[in-house]
Design goal:
This protein is an alpha/beta fold and 236 residues long. It contains 8 helices and 10 strands. A hairpin with a 2-residue loop joins β4 and β5.
């Protein structure tokens, strides 16, 4: 009976985590490992900061979580699936459940701010009447209510960043990965964006924010994942 309870508890724990890394290592080509023996979970509804010195591999770790890289060794399970066993054609379906904010924004220059933010919903085949109000409301929240019909080349760096954040949030992903999401905005807007991430987390999304901003991290009591020399230390 004790063994049965142990198995049931283990399975419940697996269901409670969205991303699981076990002894993961990554190297490019024949070079040295840049990520070493990473073992951690991203639980459902969790909120954490990923921090560490420049060049530590934070962006690379986010790419592994986003399934745009595969590890050299170790196990990664995403939504309870071993990514080494997932057919390539199925990866885009899993990525739709993950929102990501890249440092280089990756907006499409021929689409307006509104169209860029609405793109994930259009790709899923949703009718515009079902999401137009939400897109406009979110753009207003991130301070882009007056920039709805502007193309990305006209936007400032901070405006592009906020548009990229809105695009990552619009479909309420199960996991949000944000790479330096407040790096190009002033402190009041950084706080407003943090509140937006917290609200999304309250609604059920697990959030991982990679940042160097100690002041931002000090504003809330959240788990900290510190990456240094390719290794990860976690402080609850």
């Amino acid at each position: 009976m004790e063994t049965l309870f142990h198995i049931m508890a283990q399975r419940a724990g697996e269901r409670a985590r969205l991303i699981h890394f076990e002894n993961v290592g990554l190297r490019y080509g024949m070079g040295p490992e840049i990520l070493k023996d990473l073992t951690f979970d991203i639980p459902k509804r969790s909120f954490q900061f990923l921090t560490g010195p420049s060049g530590a591999g934070k962006t690379t770790l986010l790419r592994l979580m986003f399934l745009s890289l595969k590890p050299t060794r170790g196990l990664i399970r995403t939504f309870d699936r071993d990514i080494s066993r997932i057919p390539v054609e199925e990866l885009p379906l899993l990525r739709r459940r993950i929102g990501i904010v890249f440092q280089d924004f990756r907006l499409l220059d021929h689409l307006t701010t509104y169209e860029n933010v609405a793109l994930p919903l259009r790709v899923r085949g949703k009718d515009e009447s079902s999401y137009q109000k939400d897109v406009l409301e979110l753009l207003k929240w991130v301070g882009l209510g007056e920039r709805v019909n502007v193309l990305p080349p006209v936007l400032s760096g901070g405006e592009k960043q906020r548009a990229a954040i809105a695009r990552a949030l619009i479909d309420r992903p199960e996991v949000l990965l944000a790479d330096e999401p407040t790096g190009n905005v002033d402190p009041p807007m950084a706080r407003r964006l943090l509140n937006l991430f917290l609200e999304l987390n309250r609604l059920g999304t697990a959030v991982v924010i990679a940042t160097h901003d100690i002041g931002l991290m000090d504003q809330i009591d959240a788990r900290r994942m510190i990456l240094s020399d390719g290794r990860l230390d976690i402080y609850e």
